[in-house]
Amino acid sequence: MDKVEVVIVGAGLAGLSAAYVLADAGVEVLVVERGDFPGSKNVSGGRLYLEPVRAYLPGLFDEAPFERQVVKERLTMLTSESSVTVELASDRFRSSPANSVTVLRARFDQWLAEKASEKGAFIIPGYKVDDVWMEEGRVAGIRSNEDILQADVVIAADGVLSFIAEKAGMRECHQPRNVALGVKEIIELPEKRIQDLFGLKAGEGATQLFFGSITEGMMGGGFLYTNQTSLSLGMVISIHDLMQKHPTISPHDLFELFKKRPEIEVLISGGHSVEYSAHDVPEGGLKSIPRLYAGGLLVAGDAAGLCLNQGITLRGMDMAIVSGVLAGRAVLDARQKKDYTAESLGIYEKYLKGSSIYQDLSTFQHMPEILSNPRLFEKYPEVASELLLEIFRVDAQPKQKISRTVLRTISRELLKVDVLRDLWHMRKI
Amino acid sequence: MNIEAKLGLDVFQIDSEQSHILIDQEVCQSRCTIRYCLHVCPADLYDLNENGEMTVDYEGCLECGTCYVACREDALEWHYPRAGYGVQYRFG
């Protein structure tokens, strides 16, 4: 049987970040990836917030192949016939280094894999892991078909479904409430057209999130990210809500209806779809985080449920990178003591709990319940757009004072028990 | 765009020897009444054949795992495709 010091399952952002840190410290580290190349099975929305990760891997991302630096944020609320958009543009977004960037994973993950390889990590694509290998009640490697690869420690960075975490008993099977389905299309458009559509200069990017009637009452929404020469357009929908929906609708049909919205149609007209992807997203927040460590095993990234849907910001990639680095550091500590027991590797959880990503998960731990409120997708966009229509329209009849229109809307639509209860719950976020 | 055209955009290495999704027909037919898999799959791969058996066109699987999460009766034995097979994202 072969043996290495560390085996990492999954060449995504968590796995590769851990590999980078470990290889940099001279540890013998092997990354096994089931896809033909790192990134070939990976999908993100794709925006990466760089501030949370920069201090962990200083300088590394300066030359990364990002798509665009995000300088403009849009949030759009949709009803069946109207939309209300808030747009935030600021010179502060133009500062260097960037606050957030758009990425395409096939390209970005390959680049990160090269960086980890340069440090000495071995990356083995086309290698699918079937199970963890146990010895004396602790994880001691991985099994692929009949091959066993022993290791002092295994890092499960095998994504949202993480069969490794499940097989090692780190969590129960997945609950539909904690997982959302993301679907996405890559739509190619000329670079200049993307810039003109969103009012951007070369290299600058925009993002747009959508919520409201498009999900037909289900928790979720739409997203749009500008890449260099394409748009990443997609939707994320709670699997639980998709299951409970009556009458049923396929995610594909829901997405096609979204694409036919005039707000979207104008952006994608003349574009060419070049890829359709689907990927699950861990959306349970803090309460769905599995056990993070066991004897000989650490869990990082999506496999550890480290994602945060805060409604306005969607984070996962930064958390994957930070958790990967921290897993790497925990292994370095354990290696110094030559002790890979759960007790020794437990330092990983301490590191994670001390990080800003964990604090954010904790601060926003009630987000999943808040966002599962159907009024957020039906009633509130309706009320807001009705009010704005009344204010903005000029009709044949004399207009009422704006203050009166606003007060009437508040008293008619918002001074209700369920609304006040929603407001009261909102204090938790 | 219909789903066939959409899946036609993607690159698949088809494993003609084995499906990575196995359906326990016994469980599926005797215990499951709601058949969530029929409408949650983003590639619309599930269908009932004339004998009332659930089928899945695993060749077009996007490997998201939604059916696996949604199947509450454990009727699906779901693995990732063997190494070298399945969808290959060129953009991601």
Give an overview in words.
- The complex is a heterodimer of chains A (429) and B (92).
- Chain A contains 16 helices and 19 strands.
- Chain A has helices at residues 13-24, 51-54, 105-119, 163-167, 191-198, 239-244, 251-259, 262-268, 317-337, 342-345, 347-353, 356-363, 367-371, 379-392, 402-414, 417-426; strands at 2-9, 29-32, 47-49, 69-78, 83-89, 100-102, 122-124, 131-135, 138-144, 147-156, 179-188, 204-212, 220-226, 230-238, 272-282, 293-294, 297-299, 308-309, 314-315.
- The longest helix of chain A is centred in the last third of the chain and has 21 residues, at 317-337.
- Chain A has 3 domains: 2-67 and 103-171 and 290-353, FAD/NAD(P)-binding domain, CATH 3.50.50; 177-282, D-Amino Acid Oxidase, Chain A, domain 2, CATH 3.30.9.90; 370-426.
- In chain A, strand 4 and strand 5 (83-89) form a beta hairpin.
- With 429 residues, chain A is α/β, with parallel strands linked by helices.
- Chain B is of the alpha+beta class.
- Chain B has one domain (3-88): 2-Layer Sandwich (Alpha-Beta Plaits), CATH 3.30.70.
- In chain B, the strands form 3 sheets. Chain B has a two-stranded antiparallel ribbon. In chain B, strands 2-5 form a two-stranded antiparallel sheet.
- The two termini of chain B are 20 Å apart.
- Chain A binds chain B through residues 34-36, 39-44, 46, 104-107, 109, 126-128, 160-161, 163, 174-176, 179, 181-183, 185-186, 230, 239, 242-243, 245, 248-252, 255-256, 273-280, and chain B through 1, 3, 6-7, 9-10, 13, 34, 36, 38-44, 62-66, 68-70, 72, 79-80, 82-84, 86-92.
Helix and strand arrangement:
The complex is a heterodimer of chains A (429) and B (92).
Chain A (H helix, E strand, L loop, with lengths): L1 E8 L3 H12 L4 E4 L14 E3 L1 H4 L14 E10 L4 E7 L10 E3 L2 H15 L2 E3 L6 E5 L2 E7 L2 E10 L6 H5 L11 E10 L2 H8 L5 E9 L7 E7 L3 E9 H6 L6 H9 L2 H7 L3 E11 L10 E2 L2 E3 L8 E2 L4 E2 L1 H21 L4 H4 L1 H7 L2 H8 L3 H5 L7 H14 L9 H13 L2 H10 L3
Parallel strand pairs in A: 1-2, 1-10, 2-7, 4-12, 10-17
Antiparallel strand pairs in A: 3-6, 4-5, 8-9, 9-10, 11-14, 11-15, 12-13, 13-14, 16-17, 18-19
Helix pairs in contact in A: 1-3, 1-9, 9-11, 14-15
Chain B lengths: L2 H5 L3 E3 L7 E3 L1 H6 L6 H4 L5 E3 L5 E3 L9 H5 L5 E3 L7 E3 L4
Antiparallel strand pairs in B: 1-6, 2-5, 3-4
